[in-house]
Design goal:
17% strand; Rossmann fold; binds NADP nicotinamide-adenine-dinucleotide phosphate; 245 residues; seven-stranded parallel beta sheet; globular; 37% helix; alpha/beta; 6 helices
Length: 245
């Protein structure tokens, strides 16, 4: 059996219906797992044929009771990955008129990640794992993104804490750099092409990150029995070069 096999395992990806989460769900399925994807809405297979391979369950990570109910419904499983996050631009800036933006962002990213891990914990089988998802801004703060930086850094700290609290369940975080997903549809097509080109020519890996790149990293974290308490940067070397954003 391949050391990266998930045959016979059940994986739950919160946020797994699109973007990075979908890349992780597909990679886990390709490795042999049965995969449940959870997010706020059920999408029909007619609407998105890529979802045919997955069970879907509704869950709003900002609603603690709904999170608890969803994991009670899912029952026993092996690996939890939490990728969901608020839409681009919904965070509040430091000097915004009030603190609603940062409170909502922390609620959806930090408290939501906490809630998923908390209510999944009783259902995780021996040998299981939890993987959180942050982003390069956790380590490379950008002007105007204080809420995102703080929320990501808090998730990374939580991940280290839970590697101890939940042991021997392993707990890690993937910190992706730029990944070309629909999160970036806030840019025009021309702007997006130009950004991808800047990434391709600047990042040491010489290509824009894909959801497959993150999926591969997630399967590694689910299957390697000796990796826990780590933050795995999957950024094509973005951390080594000047910002292209
Ligand atoms: N793409 C990048 O370059 C990049 C880089 C670094 C970090 N990140 C971070 O990675 C995360 C995911 O990014 P992405 O590009 O995969 O975004 P995406 O394509 O917009 O996917 C977000 C997913 O989260 C779900 N979701 C949103 N709010 C939710 C909630 N309250 N409860 C449950 N599910 C919820 C959405 O489904 P529903 O609408 O059905 O709920 C969707 O499936 C974000 O936190 C982002 O900041 C992205």
């Amino acid at each position: 059996m391949s050391p990266l096999s998930l045959a016979g395992k059940k994986v739950v990806v919160v946020g797994g219906k699109s973007g990075i989460g979908l890349g992780i769900a597909r990679a886990a399925h390709a490795a042999g797992a049965s995969v449940t994807v959870a997010s706020r809405r059920i999408t029909s297979v007619a609407e998105d044929p890529q979802l045919a391979d997955f069970e879907q369950i509704t869950l709003d990570i900002t609603d603690e009771a709904a999170v608890r109910q969803a994991f009670d419904t899912i029952g026993s499983f092996d690996h939890l990955v939490i990728t969901s996050g608020p839409a681009f631009g919904t965070w509040g800036t430091f000097m915004a008129a009030d603190m609603r933006g940062v409170r909502d962002y922390m609620e959806a990213k930090f408290m939501g990640s906490w809630a998923c891990a908390r209510y999944a914990a009783p259902h995780l089988r021996p040998g299981g794992s939890v993987t959180f998802l942050t982003g390069g801004t956790a380590a490379r703060p950008k002007l105007g993104l204080a809420a995102v930086v703080a929320a990501f850094a808090a998730v990374e700290s939580l991940s280290g804490s839970l590697a101890q609290e939940m042991a021997p369940t392993r707990v890690n975080t993937i910190r992706p750099g730029y990944i070309d997903t629909d999160l970036w549809s806030v840019l025009s097509d021309d702007e997006r092409v130009a950004l991808n080109e800047r990434v391709r020519t600047t990042f040491p890996a010489r290509h824009a990150g894909t959801t497959e790149d993150v999926g591969h990293a997630a399967v590694f974290l689910m299957t390697n029995r000796y990796v826990t308490g780590t933050v795995l940067e999957v950024s094509g070397g973005e951390n080594l070069v000047p910002s292209v954003f």
